[in-house]
């Protein structure tokens, strides 16, 4: 099974890279190369980096067999806190904003694991709760940033590289290392893939799920800070579509609505695909209404291709199931590839 | 395992390559001095394009663009400030003669306007302006003063209702420029005229007529003694009127709106709708293209280009009904 799952996500990832490269090539040709100009690539990577943390959050939530509809509301509230609390100082404001995400993540996680409520319902509830708090706190007015240094997180450059790109790369590297190289990280996959099986093997399923939601909440908080920084303001209008677009990006990047699949690389590819698509279509001058349609077609195509792929993969490789944890090395020796 | 690592590093590389190559950013930006030789091209970023008044603005722009032989690209962030910021950045990359922005959020748009100025591309704000900080980076604002519209309604209510009564307010999307300004204008007019209205409730109907029906129905259930409803646009005003008619309270509650929708003007003539602040949205589109052309030709341009606004009630409806275009 492990091999099968690996083959599937491998195929999906490879298909997505092909998709991404073809999109880049297509838009470069259509715009006479202007989408590949240094100016546009700088702009594009900055835009993508601002959107990335919320997709990473959704990826983790999906990975553990949950989902997080509150990411958009948390993003908006954290952004507003990061700006609104600036009278307390830059770092206190930023830290409280991120911790607010952690707090909501913990609330989500506790309600899902301890009260046993479905993640969809719980996070829908916290989404409304946080949105209500947001509208009350701001009196529905945007708040302008007062500390100029705050704009550096989302809008600054370090050695010509947009700062948010570096921040996202660091976060991604840490998360990737955690998911792949630590026992707890690998257990998150096990919990998401088959909670009962994970329980039987002695994994503390509930605690791992709780941890997953806390990570997702924290990432949403970071997303809010980055976005507020790039806009130098806390806006009540941001994040309205973030929950659904982040699910779309995570699915394109190899996540499954049934949990246990996906990863940081996939999440990044998902968010890059959507970013390149929007940027390229804006550059070509495609009307926004067609853009929504094109995004939908790509999302559905990726999922359908994946369904077809998994059938193609599973049929001839039934024999694999009998030796699930074995993998042939280049020298022909079969080795155990326990996760 | 290996190839997954490879793919992750590929994704990282795509991010990094784009980022690193930004070192040349400053070089091409300086060439905007030669703009006069080119034809007029406008990259327009709307706020929420599927609203009747924005549709009118786009029609105005499209029609006027034909006269100036201008190429207009319309982008719609559908009310998302983050998307709008990205779209303005994408406009900058396209290097049009002028970028036109209809702000979703007056504050959140500021960094994008700053970036446009840094790239040497002039910005015209239209319909919804940015704040004072943002105005440092823009050439002009084309539009009706949404503050004045709110103020006009406030005055109208004071005159028609004798300065007192129970009022409910139906607003557009929380946080939007027009919503804030119309509310502030309304309150300022009440203060200036010495009116003492009792606001029973304020709710958003997200600029939607259907939602306004629901909101007003709830208000009617909750408050039996409403004297007037102030809707921030005529679409929502018409929705409120529908709810009032369904509840059999027609004629007992005065309905005010903003915009000058055709149906609202008809209802003002019939006496079922109390008044509107007429906004000639089509002309906002027309003026925006003209302003862009003047900027292209290096002509002097006023800081504000205001389209006509008028307080329209039963008393002067015959004079204005021809302008109710929506």
State the gist of this model:
The complex is a heterodimer of chains A (339) and B (326). Chain A is mainly α and 339 residues long. Helix content of chain A is 72%, strand content 4%.
Q: How would you sum up this structure, described in words?
A:
The complex is a heterodimer of chains A (339) and B (326). Chain A is mainly alpha-helical and 339 residues long. Chain A has helices at 2-30, 38-63, 71-84, 90-113, 119-138, 152-155, 163-181, 183-193, 195-200, 205-231, 242-252, 264-284, 288-314, 318-322; strands spanning 143-144, 157-158, 161-162, 233-234, 326-328, 334-336. Chain A has one domain (38-338): ABC transporter involved in vitamin B12 uptake, BtuC (Orthogonal Bundle). In chain A, the strands form 3 sheets. A two-stranded antiparallel sheet of chain A has the order 1-4. In chain A, strands 2-3 form a two-stranded antiparallel ribbon. In chain A, strands 5-6 form a two-stranded antiparallel ribbon. The longest helix of chain A has 29 residues, at 2-30. Residues 315-329 and 332-339 of chain A have low confidence and may be disordered. Chain B is an alpha/beta fold. In chain B, helix 3 (52-68) packs parallel to helix 12, helix 4 runs parallel beside helix 5 and helix 9 packs across helix 10 (234-246). Chain B is elongated, with a radius of gyration of 23 Å. Chain B has helices spanning 2-20, 26-29, 52-68, 81-94, 110-118, 132-135, 146-161, 177-193, 209-222, 234-246, 262-270, 281-296, 317-320, and strands spanning 41-45, 71-75, 98-101, 123-126, 140-143, 164-171, 196-204, 228-231, 254-259, 275-279, 304-306, 309-313. Chain B folds into 2 domains: 38-144 and 281-307, Response regulator (Rossmann fold, 3-Layer(aba) Sandwich), CATH 3.40.50.2300; 146-277, Response regulator (Rossmann fold), CATH 3.40.50.2300. Chain B is 48% helix and 19% strand. At the A-B interface, helix 1, helix 2, strand 1, strand 3 and helix 7 of A face helix 1, strand 2 and helix 4 of B.
């Amino acid at each position: 099974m492990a091999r099968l799952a690996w083959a599937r996500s491998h195929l999906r990832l490879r298909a997505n890279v092909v998709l991404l490269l073809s999109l880049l090539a297509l838009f470069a040709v259509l715009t006479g190369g202007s989408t590949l100009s240094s100016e546009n690539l700088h702009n594009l990577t900055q835009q993508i980096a601002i959107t990335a943390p919320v997709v990473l959050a959704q990826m983790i939530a999906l990975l553990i067999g949950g989902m997080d509809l509150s990411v958009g509301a948390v993003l908006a509230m954290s952004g507003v806190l990061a700006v609104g609390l600036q009278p307390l100082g830059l770092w206190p404001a930023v830290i409280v904003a991120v911790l607010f995400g952690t707090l909501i993540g913990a609330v989500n996680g506790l309600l899902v694991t301890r009260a046993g409520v479905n993640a969809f319902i719980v996070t829908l509830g916290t989404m409304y709760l946080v949105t209500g708090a947001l509208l009350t706190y701001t009196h529905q007015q945007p708040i302008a940033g007062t500390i100029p240094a705050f704009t550096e997180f989302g809008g600054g450059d370090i050695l010509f590289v947009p700062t948010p790109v570096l921040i996202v790369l660091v976060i991604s590297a840490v998360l990737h290392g955690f998911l792949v190289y630590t026992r707890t990280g690998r257990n998150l996959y096990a919990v998401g893939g088959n909670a009962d099986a994970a329980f039987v093997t002695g994994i503390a399923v509930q605690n791992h799920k709780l941890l997953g939601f806390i990570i997702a909440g924290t990432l949403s908080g970071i997303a809010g800070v980055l976005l507020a920084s790039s806009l130098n303001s806390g806006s009540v209008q941001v994040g309205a579509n973030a929950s659904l677009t982040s699910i779309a990006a995570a699915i394109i990047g190899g996540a499954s609505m049934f949990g246990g699949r996906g990863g940081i690389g996939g999440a990044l590819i998902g968010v890059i695909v959507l970013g390149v698509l929007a940027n390229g279509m804006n550059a070509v001058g495609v009307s926004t209404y067609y853009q929504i349609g094109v995004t939908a077609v790509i999302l559905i195509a990726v999922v359908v291709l994946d369904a077809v792929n998994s059938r193609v993969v599973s049929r001839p490789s039934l024999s694999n199931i009998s030796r699930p944890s074995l993998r042939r090395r280049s020298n022909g020796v079969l080795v155990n590839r326990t996760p | 395992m290996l190839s997954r690592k490879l793919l992750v590093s590929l994704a990282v590389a795509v991010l990094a390559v784009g980022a690193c190559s930004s070192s040349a950013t400053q070089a091409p930006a300086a060439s905007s001095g030669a703009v006069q030789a080119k034809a007029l091209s406008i990259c327009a970023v709307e706020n929420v394009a599927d609203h009747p008044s924005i549709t009118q603005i786009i029609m105005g722009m499209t029609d006027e663009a034909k006269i100036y032989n201008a190429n207009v690209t319309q982008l719609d962030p559908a009310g998302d400030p983050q998307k709008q910021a990205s779209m303005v950045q994408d406009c900058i990359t396209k290097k049009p003669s002028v970028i036109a922005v209809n702000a979703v959020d007056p504050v959140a748009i500021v960094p994008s306007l700053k970036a446009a100025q840094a790239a040497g591309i002039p910005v015209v704000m239209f319909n919804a302006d940015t704040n004072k900080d943002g105005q440092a980076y823009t050439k002009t604002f084309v539009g009706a003063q949404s503050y004045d519209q709110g103020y006009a309604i406030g005055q109208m209510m004071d005159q028609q209702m004798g300065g007192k009564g129970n009022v409910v307010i139906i607003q557009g999307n929380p946080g939007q420029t027009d919503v804030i300004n119309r509310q502030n204008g309304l309150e300022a007019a009440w203060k200036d005229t010495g009116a003492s209205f009792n606001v029973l409730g304020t709710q958003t109907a997200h600029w939607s007529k259907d939602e306004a029906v629901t909101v007003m129905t709830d208000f009617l259930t909750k408050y039996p003694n409403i004297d007037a409803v102030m809707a921030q646009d005529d679409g929502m005003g018409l929705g409120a009127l529908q709810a009032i008619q369904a509840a059999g309270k027609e004629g007992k509650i005065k309905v005010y709106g903003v915009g000058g929708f055709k149906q609202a003007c008809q209802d003002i003539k019939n006496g079922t709708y109390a008044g509107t602040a007429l906004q000639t949205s089509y002309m906002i589109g027309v003026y925006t293209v003209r302003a862009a052309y003047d900027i292209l030709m290096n002509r002097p341009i006023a800081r504000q280009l205001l389209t006509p606004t008028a307080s329209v009630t039963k008393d002067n409806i015959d004079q204005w009904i021809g302008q109710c275009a929506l």
